[in-house]
Specification:
Radius of gyration: 21 Å
Helix content: 40-55%
Largest sheet: 7 strands, mixed
Distance between the termini: 52 Å
Number of helices: 7
Order of helices and strands: EHHHEEEEHEEHHH
């Protein structure tokens, strides 16, 4: 039996960027989207500057491609809202008479650094594609990630596996925010590059947890 499709209301919409946050760390996602905490470091500052440039808005035409900057996105099925860095609309012509059949959307997300080891960037881009599909009633099969550190675009195919994973992450994100509970911190190497490190204090939280567990074990042994 197929699972019933959830349709969110406008009031339930969450930032699509949160998908990246929850993949990176549930505690980070909760600190940002439940506790409204934010802090900037060099990495986030440089990334923000790059996004500010493309989020100035506007549009332009480049031959058979129309480019929309800072395009608002929304999906009531995923319960997400966003602003796409760039959406290219590629002209598709009728091979018989050369007339335009449609303009095919192709989302492009700009990233400051290098390609990540996880799939968080691909999930964010796939979320944008699924928003476009719902808004424009058209299939969006591909998009691209542009990485500033290597000055290169990486094409992304939105296959069924990536779509299902993206939908699952979106549901997990809504469940986290709805719970109102911020998970406890567990330190790992990736914490060192997190802009919320000083607010999260993962080493302190982990240390206190070990002490509490030790004390509980001592009590049980008596």
């Amino acid at each position: 039996m197929e699972q019933e499709q959830i349709i969110y209301s406008e009031d339930d919409l969450l930032p699509l960027s949160g998908l990246q946050h929850i993949i990176f760390c549930k505690r980070q996602a909760a600190l940002i989207h439940i506790e409204q905490a934010w802090a900037e470091n060099l990495l986030t500052a440089e990334g923000r500057i790059m996004h500010d440039k493309v989020h100035e808005g506007g549009s332009e035409s480049r031959g058979d491609v129309r480019v929309e900057y800072a395009m608002p996105l929304r999906s009531l099925k995923l319960g997400l809202i966003a602003k796409a860095d760039v959406v290219e609309f590629h002209r598709v012509n009728n091979p018989e008479d050369g007339k335009v059949i449609k303009w095919q959307p192709f989302p492009v997300e700009y990233k400051h650094g290098k390609p990540k080891k996880d799939n968080s960037d691909k999930v964010q881009l796939c979320g944008q594609a699924m928003c476009l599909e719902e808004m424009l009633n058209v299939r969006v099969g591909q998009g691209a990630l542009f990485y500033g550190a290597v000055r290169r675009r990486e094409d992304v195919v939105f296959d069924d596996e990536l779509r299902q994973f993206t939908q699952g992450v979106a549901m997990e994100f809504h469940e986290l925010v709805l719970s109102g509970i911020t998970p406890k911190g567990v330190y790992s190497k990736k914490c060192d590059n997190c802009s919320l490190y000083e607010l999260c204090l993962p080493k302190t939280v982990s240390k206190n947890r070990r002490i509490n567990n030790f004390l509980k074990e001592m009590v049980l042994e008596k």
